[in-house]
Amino acid sequence: MTAPTTSTNPPLVCWNCHERAQGTHFCPSCGKLQQIAGSTDYFALFEMPRKLWIEMNSLEQKFLQLSWKLHPDNFVNATETERELSLKRSSELNDAYRTLRDPVARVEYLLGLENMRKEGEHKQQAPPELLEEVFELNESLDELREAKSAGDELTALKSRLESAEKNFGEKLSEVDAQLQATARDWDAGADANADEAARKKIMTRLNELLNRRSYIRNLVVNVQKEIL
């Protein structure tokens, strides 16, 4: 059975007119701001499918439009229910925008929705092919810390670590490119209505890349802290 890859809102009953209110934000019958269904996600808030390529200008325009419509200033003279809903919805919209505009956070969020984000399993373990380089990097970091404590000359050690930082920075760029390519695979699968096995295979790969990216990024950040 093929799983859906788009965000949809279940039919709701308007709190004000009690008519069926199919829609994300406002009741089509009375125009009142609606409560959000528990299943509504960030993609649904922007009325877009669960896909990983997003046109940034469109997202920003949608965000600005919704921010204006949902802003608490527009509900100063409204009912208490509407004022509370406006505050809550504005906050959720800001969170959704911050997440969806960041390509890495967007992947993490999507995997979370699909119950496929598995942080920590291998996150703190160096990828096998990087073991030797990571070992050498940690040795250099230890040497630099010892030299700092002893007040020794740091130029040569810092130069070595700067080279290592550049090397791992390039590896981080490679992972980002692989992440983008796999994200395109996800979107192609969504367009083709891929089956569950195909979807899980792509999500497993995305999760592996996120963990790899997190590990390498931590290495780069640690080096940057030490050589400042």
Layout of strands and helices, then pairs:
Blueprint lengths: L41 H4 L10 H15 L9 H21 L2 H11 L17 H20 L4 H37 L4 H32 L1
Describe this structure in words.
The chain is mainly α and 228 residues long. The chain folds into two domains: 51-113, Helix Hairpins (Orthogonal Bundle); 128-227. 61% of the residues lie in helices and 0% in strands. The chain is built from seven helices and no strands. The longest helix has 37 residues, at 155-191.
Distance between the termini: 54 Å
Domain tally: 2
Number of strands: 0
Strand content: under 5%
Helical proportion, percent range: 55-70%
Count of alpha/pi helices: 7
Main β-sheet: number of strands, strand sense, barrel status?
Answer: none
What class would the helix/strand composition place it in? mainly alpha
Rough outline: elongated
Runs in which pLDDT lies below 50 for 5 or more consecutive residues are: 1-9
Identify the notable features of this structure and list them briefly.
7 helices; 61% helix; elongated; mainly alpha; Helix Hairpins; 2 domains; 228 residues
In short:
With 228 residues, this protein is an all-alpha fold.
